[in-house]
Specification:
Elements lengths: L12 H16 L3 E2 H8 L3 H13 L3 E4 L4 E4 L2 H12 L1 H17 L2 E8 L3 E8 L14 E3 L3 H9 L5 H9 L9 H14 L2 E4 L6 E9 L5 E10 L6 H21 L5
Antiparallel strand pairs: 1-3, 2-3, 4-5, 4-9, 5-6, 7-8, 8-9
Amino acid sequence: MNMATTNLRKPVVAVQRAVEIMRYLGSAQRPAGVNEVARALGIVPSTCLHILKTLDHDGMVSEDKAAKKYQLGPTLLRFARDMVGSNDFVRNAQTLLDRTAVAHQVTTAAVWREGTDRIIVVAKAHTPSNFSIHVNIGSRFPALTSAIGHCFAAASTDPPALLKAAFEDIKWQTKPAYPAWLEDVASAAKNGYAVDAGHYIGGVTIVAAPVHEAGGICNRAIVGLGLSDQLKGEALSSLGEELKCSAENLSELYSDAIV
């Protein structure tokens, strides 16, 4: 999906391949050999080996020399920690997430689009009560997932056929009809926040508000999750409005004007 991304004019192929290799090793959830990685990604085995050796030298991947297989390395954990501690969006969002979680007794999260078709959780906050919906930092989902997807779809420039194909790929617990989903997308564009009442996860209502950059580009969002019996009526609209206000405040940090 495009969803308002900009094209990279002159990508550095070696860097792209290194990123592809690390993504493959992460998604495989097990060590993999050079030939497997090269075949899966369409890379010449000798080139793949040189990239893996370089990544291993810098700790980005780790080689099991006996098995001659590779997996993600420990340096990535340090990078992840440094990103959470130093990134402006994560740091600013965290304050808002903490406040909203306490005020509305919901789990909150901030998500960032990774590549063109996935989102990743980059910050979270839980309620101080004994029960809360758990969200893991680093969790990845399809970009059109739940209410978050309504926000991204509302800002998308993709043709209808591509948008529908992405919608069909989502694993809903109770799948909405596509026309109804489009109505939810339109509502998100109009109201400034989106609601998924139990379609993605049964019994859980998810509310999301988009964070925009210059030109109306939407790559990030903040989210509230709670039990559907808890989030209805005034409680639901109040959470939506607070997330919308917080998202607008975050948006001001990343654009001089939102169009």
